[in-house]
Write a structure and sequence with these properties.
- The complex is a heterodimer of chains A (469) and B (282).
- Chain A has 16 helices and 16 strands.
- Chain A is α/β, with parallel strands linked by helices.
- Chain A folds into 3 domains: 113 residues, Fumarate Reductase Iron-sulfur Protein, Chain B, domain 2 (Orthogonal Bundle); 162 residues, FAD/NAD(P)-binding domain (3-Layer(bba) Sandwich), CATH 3.50.50; 160 residues, FAD/NAD(P)-binding domain (3-Layer(bba) Sandwich).
- The relative contact order of chain A is 0.13.
- Chain B is an alpha/beta fold.
- Chain B has 9 helices and 16 strands.
- The interface between A and B is large, with 41 and 43 residues.
């Protein structure tokens, strides 16, 4: 049978419909499509896809089970190495990972590995009746700081080995960036809650409203009997550009804008937490967070949303599918544009004018690409005299974050680099014995799956460390 | 869930509560704050810690009923629970090396100023307190301040109680009379803190101010609480939740901070009205 050169399309809500709601954009494969897509897998011997996966999911094996129609068995295979399959199937940049190395991709489109993973996880969540069983305890206690992707992964892997794991979360809901950052239309919160419930079934204890570094310190965790600690405290303070006007009303960091909408549910009717809705919005940046912010602004009723990015489409770091979805929804990409100033209203005759201090526009300069810089990407250079203004009522800065400062300031002997990231070795071990770290707290803003990979590496190292103790 | 152990009305618009939160009670220091949510759908609001009882495991908060959330909170009674209560956040007030201090509190800011005054008193510093209110009905915590201050001056804007005028009036008189404070600590509305700084400037007295910007997570993640400091001719962005809430008064851009504080003014006024109507109809 000839192989279909193209991946089976992911059914989605129509762009003109989804631009006005917060329901999930991608609807997922049905059984028939999943079987057909699974049959595209060559089940090749060298399994290049597996090494492209940061958590090394046994990809050909799970796809083989899908082909057989044994979806629960497929789920169990994924579950051996990934604690968050329904999440990864949705948010991983597969085109740069597993699917990039797919043998099929040399000639055709890669197998839709991410779409199949999502199908399998959703099938399990809809059909599975048996709860995960907590394994027999090995008597060791491990504390996890933060319930984002790295922390949940580390917790899951250790719990499966019999460790008594406690996860400490600073916010009121578990999930970290999966609940405060990634919007409902890309990752429904019910899916995150379900994954957290599965971990609880495995015996993981989740304590919200505890800030490690403030409520309790790392040293106190050891005093409480925890024998190892994993720090997955995630992204910290948002970066700003240090251009004039960034303190005007209507200028948000993407973290703040998304937290208001996602965690605090400001997207709902009559929310308790306010957010600016409507108007014209400029989102500065080109990553996944920028796409999420732009598409959230659109769904909150903005009449026009711009992405302002200083490089070209080729360098745009967001997941390809998100960029395509954003374009379909009508987001206006202003590439090779760089903001130089945010403009605000100022009534010189009336300092009490309530409109004073609100954003009215953003001044940008056009850029061209010069020689490659340290990152290997061509450096954007401003074109003199090309400045112009866009009329906007809100500006959202999505240009990255620096690691969370709370733990390093209260933990003696924990070494951090010049950017504030916790320094770790290849096993995720920090400069303190028994203290491991991973995810954005180490690397600065990166992806969900790389954080999960780090959580996994640390879980193995913690197991080795405590087994040898 | 966190239990309301005690509740007391300090004046018709200001309420004091003691909340069961043992971990926070063990750690919180004067100048730090907590974040709470009243119910499952509620917003996160920061409130400064007004005292702790580590033995009992309770944390004292004092809040003014200004918006929908504080209205909802005020409708909770002793024995009832609030959804979330997390802290302590921010840096504690710096006390080292300060032997003679002037605490200036304005309105509900006095609730934050009180534990700071008590802490200096406990540490053996000479404490002068100047507390100001719009009128007699809004006066709070006079006895508490009396107990921890070597000298206390109470002011009302309209003269309906104690001395008539703003807090800067007695402050200026003291400075002119040659009082040498190691530090003046101003806690209250932005405009009051701005004028305390202006009053102290000619005398070269250091001033610490306690900022209370809009905040969401309070843990150094969202950046909503940012403010600008003028440091050595440079404008520097700081975050009240992790760098503050106390800042050098001479460096803070108060006009910007006050403007940012009004970002959701209309929204909050409507929400408060709706919350009030809700309780009226109930």
């Amino acid at each position: 049978m000839a192989i279909d050169p193209k991946k089976h399309e992911m059914p989605t809500q129509a762009p003109e419909v989804r631009a006005h709601n917060f329901s999930e954009v991608a609807l997922g494969y049905d059984q028939e499509t999943a079987l057909a897509e699974a049959s595209r897998c060559l089940n090749c011997k060298n399994r290049p896809c597996v090494s492209g996966c940061p958590v090394n999911i046994h990809i050909p094996e799970f796809i083989a089970k899908v082909k057989e129609g044994d979806f629960e068995a497929a789920y169990q295979i994924i579950n051996q190495t990934s604690s968050l399959p329904a999440v990864c199937g949705r948010v991983c940049p597969q085109e740069n990972q597993c699917e990039k190395y797919c043998t099929l991709a040399k000639k055709f489109e890669a197998v839709g590995i991410g779409r199949l993973e999502r199908f399998v996880a959703d099938w399990h969540n809809a059909h599975a009746t048996e709860k995960a069983q907590a394994p027999e305890s090995n008597g060791h206690k491990v504390a996890i700081v933060g319930s984002g992707p790295s922390g949940l992964t580390c917790a899951g892997d250790l719990a499966k080995k019999g460790y008594k794991v406690s996860v400490f979360e600073a916010l009121h809901t578990a999930g970290g960036v999966l609940v405060y950052g990634i919007p409902e239309f890309r990752l429904p919160k019910s899916i995150v809650a379900k994954e957290v419930e599965t971990l609880k079934d495995l015996g993981v204890d989740v304590e919200t409203n505890v800030i490690i570094g403030k409520t309790l310190t790392i040293d106190e965790l050891f005093e409480m009997g925890y024998e190892a600690v994993f720090i997955g405290s995630g992204a910290g303070l948002p970066n700003f550009m240090n251009i004039p006007g960034e303190s005007l009303k209507g200028v948000y960091s993407a973290n703040e804008f998304l937290t208001r909408s996602n965690l605090m549910k400001a997207y709902k009717e009559d929310p308790k937490t306010p957010i600016m809705k409507g108007g014209k919005v400029a989102v500065v940046g080109g990553g996944n967070v920028a796409m999420d912010a732009a598409r959230t602004a659109l769904r909150l009723g903005a009449e026009k949303v711009y992405i302002v990015y200083r490089r070209s489409m080729e360098e745009l770091p967001a997941r390809r599918e998100e960029v395509e979805h954003a374009q379909e929804e009508g987001i206006d990409f202003r590439l090779l544009h760089n903001p130089v100033e945010i403009l605000g209203y100022n009534n010189p005759d009336d300092p009490r004018d309530p409109k004073n201090g609100f954003v009215t526009g953003i001044r940008c300069v056009k850029m061209e690409l010069g020689e490659p810089d340290a990152s290997g990407r061509r450096r954007p250079v401003a074109i003199p005299g090309s400045e112009f203004e866009l009329d906007v009522t809100a500006v959202i800065m999505a240009i990255g974050t620096s690691p969370n400062p709370l733990i390093k300031s209260t933990t003696k002997g924990l070494e951090v680099n010049s950017r504030g990231g916790i320094i770790v070795n290849e096993d995720g071990l920090t400069s303190r014995e028994g203290v491991y770290a991973g995810g954005d707290a180490v690397t600065g803003a990166a992806t969900v799956i790389s954080a999960m990979g780090a959580g996994k590496v640390a879980a193995k190292a913690i197991d080795d460390y405590l087994s040898a103790k | 869930m966190y239990k309301i152990v005690r509740k007391r009305e300090l004046n018709p618009t200001v309420t004091q509560m003691e909340i069961e939160a043992p971990l926070v009670a063990r750690k919180a220091k004067p100048g730090q704050f907590i974040i709470l949510r009243v119910d499952e759908e509620g917003e996160r609001i920061p409130l400064t810690v007004a005292g702790t009882n580590p033995e009992e495991g309770t944390v004292k908060i004092i809040f003014q009923i200004v918006g929908a959330t504080t209205e909802m909170l005020n409708h909770k009674n002793e024995g009832e629970y609030i959804q979330d209560f997390v802290g302590p956040l921010g840096m504690a007030t710096h006390t080292e090396g300060i032997k003679k201090v002037c605490i200036v509190g304005g309105g509900v800011g006095c609730a934050i100023a009180m534990p700071v005054a008590q802490e200096f008193h406990r540490l053996g510093a000479e404490v002068t307190s100047i507390i100001g209110f719009r009128n007699k009905d809004l006066l709070i915590l006079e006895d508490e301040f009396k107990a921890c201050s070597d000298k206390l001056v109470v002011m009302t804007d309209d003269g309906s109680y104690a001395r008539h005028g703003n807090v800067t009036v007695p402050l200026k008189e003291m400075l002119e009379a040659g009082e040498k404070f190691d530090m003046v600590i101003a806690i209250g509305p932005g405009i009051m803190m701005k004028f305390v700084v202006a009053t102290c400037k000619p005398f070269g007295v250091p001033v610490t101010v306690s900022m209370n910007p809009i905040m969401i997570d309070g843990t150094g993640m969202c950046g909503g609480c940012r403010l600008t400091l003028n440091q050595d001719g440079k404008r520097v962005t700081k975050f009240a939740c992790v760098d503050g809430p106390d800042f050098n008064g001479y460096e803070v851009d108060f006009d910007e901070a006050m403007s940012r504080g009004r970002m959701y003014f209309d929204y909050e006024r409507n929400a408060h009205e709706e919350a009030c109507n809700l309780f009226k109809n109930a």
